Amino acid sequence: MTNVNVNVNVNVNVNGSGPRTAARWALAFALTFACLLLVSTARADPPKVSSDVPPPVASGGLPAAQLAGIGFDQHINERLPLDTTFIDEEGNPVALGNYFGKRPVVLALTYAECPMLCNLVLSGLTGSMRAVSSDVGAGYDVLAVSFDPKDTPETSAKRKAQYVRRYGRPGAAAGFHFVTGTPESITALTRAVGFRYELDLQTGQYAHPAGVVVIMPDGRIGRYLYGSEFSPRDMELAIAEAAVGKASLTNQLLLLCYRYDPQTGSYSARAIGAVRIGGVLTLVALGLFMAQSARRNRRASRSSSVPVPVPVPDSGPPARPAGPTTTTTTSGDGT
User: Fold this and answer.
1) 65 or 175: whose pLDDT is higher?
2) What is the C-alpha separation between 135 and 120, in angstroms, rounded?
3) What's the whole-model pTM score?
């Protein structure tokens, strides 16, 4: 846990009113909000998971010495052997590269006769994808490759129908692909992905790691997600990163808040990304408020500069102009 001590002293003159006082209050609120966001996101960082914890493994009956060699070697940004040939659900040979070029691909390495773990991986993957906003076949595809050379196109078709029905969204059949291959094609793909597994000759079962690999449209390896249950958030972010610039704005913002941890095969929150987003949003809101206040000030100044006519007081009817004055003189004798 990260401890952050923040002391904020904000002095705001609350006397008076008008845009200046409102702007001070907005600035105080923005500073307080940014500090609280820093504290909350710093405390939200999850504890680090030890790198010694391996992904789940189907052990079969192998001794511990052989089990130690089972797991994933992450080959991020390395390209798959796209010219390798596999067999699709209808029995047709198809180059691996045919499944790439348009959108990300979630790759699951499983086999039909696996007693438990492979079904858990595919069920967990399907449940996670049901909570992801984009649809299989539109935003990304699913490619389930059997690493057992004994599997057949018939078993692939049955498994595809099962998980397409479980996923339940329209048009999903076009985005689900279940393929089988020869020992040579299987070896080429598993080595490229870093998928280490062993066959138990006594039981005929495979000891193998559990997880899926998200591949970019050009066939380069993007992210590894470990386990048999996958967080919808991790799945969404891994697909968004693999989309190479085609992710939605929401997912691009989320990628600023979360970072991929290759040791755990998952995403964890990072405080600095959330603080950046919070700071940008706060500055945008504050800028809009200040711009609105400035427009109000300009309107008020323009209205105060318009001359107002002064009324003249009414003094009654105008005085009559003075005419010529006549003077009468009277003599002493009356004439």
Assistant:
1) 175
2) 21
3) 0.62
